[in-house]
Amino acid sequence: MALANSTWEQHWRALLGISAETAQGVVAAGAILVILFGVIIPAVGVVSYLFRKLGADLQARVGPNQAGAAGFLQGLADLLKLLQKQKMKSEVTSAESQREGSFWYFGHTLVLYSSLAVLPLGSVFLFVNTDMSAFLPFIAALAAVLATLFSGVARGGVASFLGVFRVSAQAVAGAVPALFALLCAGLGAGGFRWEAMAKAQGFYPWSWRVFVNPFELLAFLVFFASGMVLLSIPPFSSAHPSSDLRGGVLSGVFGRRFAWLSFSRTYALFLWSLISVVMFLGAWNLPGFLDGAPERERWVFVLELIVVLSKTVSLMLLAGWIERASPRLRTDHVTDLVWWVFMPAALVALIGTALWERLWGGP
Questions:
Q1: Secondary structure element (H or E) that encloses residue 356, with its range
Q2: E strands in the chain
Q3: Which of 138, 158, 228, 285 lies at a CB distance of 3.0 to 4.6 Å from 203, suitable for a disulfide?
Q4: What is the dihedral of CA 219, 222, 223, 228, to 10 degrees?
Q5: What is the pLDDT of residues 228-241, one digit of tens each?
Q6: 148 near 167, Cβ under 8 Å?
Q7: Can you give 77-115 as a three-state secondary structure string?
Q8: What share of residues in the chain are helix, strand, coil (percent, to 5)?
């Protein structure tokens, strides 16, 4: 797997003040750390705050509106409360608990950090730009589900073990139509490289893939909705709580682990929204008069980051509104919806996209 090109390396060396003799891997590691602490964590924090504000407005809750300036301190208060919660002494000293904790932290941390190197945050952020680029975050999302399954099995309880089957069924159901929708994006762009998908679109909405090809609009809707099913984003999250199974795969998860789960789930939604934006909603493209900026000045890359993040956050807020305005569906209802609605729609989108590109031209 090759890195995109030397452009990102030159800009990051200048930004980080690293000499030309330093190994490329060191530059990449420093860039990823900057992205994690300078982009991802602040973005997830802002989205979490906006989710709380949205929920407060829809549900008439007081805390997110009055705790601190504009409710800013409510999230911090909840985080401190979760960090203080501890397990009972008998649970802490048990071997099963230690094994379960190892699976939990290792799995989610592995997924979180593995996808950072392939995030399409702009032309200078493309560390990996291969023919498999669009599939790598998809694989990371499946790995997140796998980590949850490992965590459920490691607990050894009946409730968590049965909950694993529900999560598996829902994850498989969401992954299949999402894969077909991803193929639609590749057909429309002429490849699965992030750069190819971005160049196939423009800055203005009428040049986005969802408006250029009507079948890709259908593919976008299927892809985003199937991603919510795959990642168990509400209202498609009934497989995780499983009240009839005493918590299911998440039984016994609270305190610091619940805080980490919340962060991971928000990041997973951020990841899925980001790749949806790049594939269907114009990516990081800027107006045409900025394309000729001398040597693509540093502020141009900042504008690219702002453009793609603003679209991503808007899409996440749409998902948050759907979450709070829709009733939570049962697992069997979710799988029926996917196989009887999303899957046929994905097949129609794939065939229609292929015919559209064949008859009316494409990359």
A1: helix 343-360
A2: none
A3: 285
A4: 170
A5: 888 878 777 766 65
A6: yes
A7: HHHHHHHHCCCCHHHHCCHHHHHHHHHHHHHHHHHHHHC
A8: 75, 0, 25
State whether residue 293 is helix, strand or coil.
Answer: coil
C-alpha 178/C-alpha 231 separation (Å) is 11
User: What is the DSSP secondary structure assignment for residue 67, as one 8-state letter?
Assistant: S
Q: pLDDT, tens digit, for every residue of 290-332?
A: 665 545 566 777 888 889 999 999 998 888 888 777 777 777 8
What integer pLDDT is reported at residue 90 of this predicted model?
Answer: 40
**pTM score of the predicted model:** 0.82
In which region does residue 17 sit, left (phi positive, over 0), alpha (psi from -120 to 50) or beta (all else)?
left
CA gap 210, 216 in Å, rounded: 5
- Average pLDDT of the chain? 76
Domain boundaries, given as residue ranges, for the chain: 6-360
Residue type, 346: A
Tokens of 202: 């423009």
Length of the chain: 363
**CB 254 within 8 Å of CB 85:** yes
3-state secondary structure of 3: strand
**Helix, strand or coil, per DSSP, at residue 128:** strand
* C-beta of residue 150 within 8 angstroms of C-beta of residue 107: yes
CA distance 151 to 160: 9
CA 235/CA 241 separation, integer angstroms: 12
CA atoms of 117 and 126, how far apart (whole Å): 8
In contact, 142 and 175? CB cutoff 8 Å: yes
Q: What is the token pair recorded at 251? A: 């039984």
